[in-house]
Amino acid sequence: MKSYTKIKDIPNLSETIKDAILLKMNPFEFQDLGKNKTLVMLFFNSSLRTRLSTEKAARNLGMEVMILNVNDAWQLEFEDGTIMNANTPEHIKEAAQVISQYADVIAVRAFSALKDKTRDESEYVLKSFKKYATVPIVNMESSTAHPLQALADATTISELTEKATPKVVLSWAPHPKALPQAVANSFVEMMQYLEVDLTITHPKGYELNKEITKETPINYDQEEALKDADFAYVKNWSSYNDYGTVLHQDENWMMTKAKLGNAKFMHCLPVRRNVVVEDAVLDSGQSVVIQQANNRTYAAQVVLKQILENL
Ligand code: CP
To answer: Which residues bind carbamoyl phosphate (predicted)?
Structure first.
């Protein structure tokens, strides 16, 4: 693997998921692979899981890790040809090349601002690093995608499924803030590659980008969609068509034990209890969110391993 900015960068998905599960059983097997190699992690936004699991993954492979909260550094200019006489003292052209001298792999987290759809969809932060850095780039959640999360989700479903074709439902849930579509986008894309029966359920107006959902069925009746589900992946996202808007926070869409049936409950975390999902679900044996979060390490580790093998 050269870089991991999107799911399509994985050369062989089923082998990669199997390798992630093998790494989980023997995390230190490739401790020499990352010797004298450094991962630089750049955060434009907050993180708990991505930051710690990716660092752990790198250290399991013997890498050194450096972390920069980008908001503590010089504010970056991304536009070409700008007269930089305002608030951006450093251009991405220099910054990416300089960081590349300190790093063998650069990982970037930069969420959508949810104000300008065209700008967000251009993925200008991630793509600028890809363009100007001279080392591989890993996406730790960008404007439109969270491929490390999706790989951990696929690994979790592969570990837990007892069926050849499990029924997987992605359900929207209410949330007080406007959240990006990135996690939902990558989950849908990842499930489309797997042998699963995928349905999306959300209130009208919360349709995701049709170029991502493609022919995946959408059912506006949450309870009907969840019938006989094996996995219920719950996530809030703001409107894509009315970009970045919270159309409503219909609390009837909160996931409950009654609606969940016998399905396993999945969520990328962090999750707002009794807003997105009731306590009774999260505190039950049907919730696999802790296992999911653990698999973030092995998803990141298999990605870094494949990148290191290609250096
Ligand atoms: N799921 C996830 O990406 O968690 P963090 O935002 O805490 O990294």
So the answer is: 47-50, 74, 109, 146-149, 268-269, 296
